[in-house]
Design goal:
It is globular, with a radius of gyration of 20 Å. The chain has 337 residues and is α+β, with helices and mostly antiparallel strands. The protein folds into three domains: 62 residues, Uridine Diphospho-n-acetylenolpyruvylglucosamine Reductase, domain 2; 116 residues, 2-Layer Sandwich (Uridine Diphospho-n-acetylenolpyruvylglucosamine Reductase, domain 3), CATH 3.30.465; 99 residues, Uridine Diphospho-n-acetylenolpyruvylglucosamine Reductase, domain 1 (Alpha-Beta Complex), CATH 3.90.78. The longest helix has 19 residues. The strands form six sheets. It has a five-stranded antiparallel β-sheet, with no helix packed on it. The chain has eight helices and 20 strands. The two termini are 23 Å apart. Helix 4 packs across helix 5. Bound molecules: uridine-diphosphate-2(N-acetylglucosaminyl) butyric acid (EPU). Uridine-diphosphate-2(N-acetylglucosaminyl) butyric acid binds next to strand 13 and helix 7.
């Protein structure tokens, strides 16, 4: 291990926030994580930086996951099993599976970030979560000093949550994901449950879409609604959609009849954070260089030159506005470093 020192992290986070790492090491093979000195180090594991708020300089060792590789591991009568290294770009990987004729991940097209980060917050969009297509996750456990493979059933996947988010995605987190195996079922069905996607396909007059057609529709919808981080720095949805008790959801729906509500299996109700933020007056509004995007109020954007402190200020103002109007607490999706 031979880390670089005083490395600028601005290019490594999609909010383009400034900050430097005291030490920085690109990790291109799992073996690099086994160095004994890593256990004692103050360390942070970084993927694509698309769900990160850099609040300033980092005085530890930043491990930038860049393990490559993608391959068909095996195939049985029901499914293909595909493995990818943690450092592979997520969207490129999804496109690669589609060109190989292995459908299943198309609804998750164009999500920024890496393969290794996908299971951590169980990325999801347009009626699909990565957990739905995942077989197992392999990662280096800094405590056990071993490479562990964790089957899907043990990953504690939930809405934007997993075992890895609880144990492995924070300062001195326990697990660094090195590769992921996906299980893509051969009995493929197009997933068009999400109204935006169904409508996009209808507009294109595609009644029986292929997986690539779905990917094309997803890409079009995302490009219409969500800012391209390369142009307008952002971290996707900035808050979780809050899940609240049914009584509160009903009371809010009485007061605001257009409130979107998504009943959950446990009886609680998921609300649309973007709707709450818009109704609280924050759609397209900014505080200094940080605002909420004009076409999707759930996306926080850096209008240029923002620092992590600017992000924290806007975040707090949005949370206060939603709390005041709806008595709902918004929790941020990204991690703060
Ligand atoms: N809405 C508004 N105003 C807005 C934004 C949304 O009223 O400014 C309303 C919409 O009209 C709709 C509801 O809120 O009734 C939900 O909006 P949308 O379908 O755009 O999805 P979302 O809940 O805002 C979630 C995910 C996205 C994912 C989309 C599509 C979370 C936190 N976000 O957004 O994921 O792409 O659904 O499935 O669950 C991400 O996590 O970074 C992300 C982009």
């Amino acid at each position: 291990m031979n880390p670089s020192t005083n490395v600028d992290l601005t290019p490594f986070n999609t909010l383009a926030l400034p900050g430097r790492a005291a030490r920085y090491q690109k990790i291109t093979a799992p073996e690099a994580l086994t160095a004994p000195e890593l256990v004692k180090e103050k360390r942070f594991v970084l993927g694509g930086g698309s769900n990160l708020v850099l609040t300033g300089d980092f005085d530890g060792l930043l491990l930038h996951m860049a393990i490559p590789g993608k391959r068909l591991v095996k195939e049985d009568a029901e499914a293909w099993f595909i493995e990818a290294g943690a450092g592979e770009n997520w969207h490129d990987f999804v496109q690669w599976t589609l060109t190989r004729g292995w459908p299943g991940l198309e609804n998750l097209s164009l999500i920024p970030g890496t393969v290794g980060a996908a299971p951590i917050q169980n990325i999801g969009a347009y009626g699909l979560e990565v957990a739905d297509c995942l077989h197992s996750v392999t990662g280096w456990d800094f405590e056990k000093k071993a490479l562990l493979t964790i089957d899907r059933g043990d990953c504690r996947f939930a809405y934007r949550d997993s075992l890895f988010k609880q144990q492995g995605w924070h300062l001195n987190g326990r697990i660094a994901i090195t590769s992921v195996i996906f299980r893509l079922a051969k009995a493929w069905q197009p997933n068009m449950r999400y109204a935006d996607i169904a409508q996009e396909l209808a507009t294109r007059e595609i009644a029986a879409p292929s997986a690539q057609d779905i990917a094309t529709a997803v890409i079009a919808v995302r490009q219409r609604k969500l800012p391209d981080p390369a142009v307008t720095p952002n971290a996707g949805s900035f808050f979780h959609n809050p899940v609240v008790e049914a009584v509160l959801a009903e009371a809010l729906a009485d007061a605001y009849p257009t409130l979107p509500r998504y009943p959950q299996p446990d009886g609680r109700v998921k609300l649309a954070a973007g709707w709450l933020i818009e109704q609280a007056g924050w759609k397209g509004k900014a505080l200094g260089p940080v605002g909420m995007y004009e076409k999707q109020a759930l996306v926080l954007v850096n209008r240029g030159g923002a620092t992590g402190q600017d992000v924290v200020r806007t975040m707090a103002a949005v949370q206060a506005a939603v709390r005041e109007k709806f008595a709902v607490e918004l929790t941020p999706e990204p991690i703060f470093l």
